[in-house]
Amino acid sequence: RLYPLRVPETGSFPCVQYQQISTVPVNQKSGAAACDFARVQVNCYSSLSYKESTDLADAVRAALEAYSGTTTNGHYVHYIEFVSALEQAEDGAQFSGVYSVIMDFMIDYNG
Q: What is the C-alpha separation between 11 and 38, in angstroms, rounded?
């Protein structure tokens, strides 16, 4: 289960939620940026166990880190860099008893 921006109230676990945090153009003296850097946050959730959330995060990281190639929408990804991770227990109303791993990636791509 993969959700953009937020996990719906009817969403089930385990799941991955992602959102773009920022985009920074790589400016050139000759004109507009030919490529951009996007910071993307990827949250891995499990209601079963801490281990399940970290196993899911490991699988996501393995799939994304150092990836290069063309995406389904035609963008060319030069490189994806893993930046950081944070593990925590969620105690909000919708996520009570849920474990999460929050990861940041920098994506170098042709915008």
A: 26
3-state secondary structure the chain: CEEECCCCCCCCCCEEEEEEEEEEECCECCECCCCEEEEEEEEEEECCCHHHHHHHHHHHHHHHCCCCEECCCCCEEEEEEEEEEEEEEECCCCCCCEEEEEEEEEEEECC
Pairing outcome for strands 69-70 and 76-90: antiparallel
Counting beta carbons within 10 angstroms of the beta carbon of residue 96, is it exposed (0 to 12), middle (13 to 18) or buried (19 or more)?
exposed
At 67-103, the pLDDT tens digits run 999 988 888 999 999 999 999 987 765 667 889 999 9
Measuring CA to CA, which residue among 77, 49, 51 is closest to residue 64? 77
**Global pTM value:** 0.87
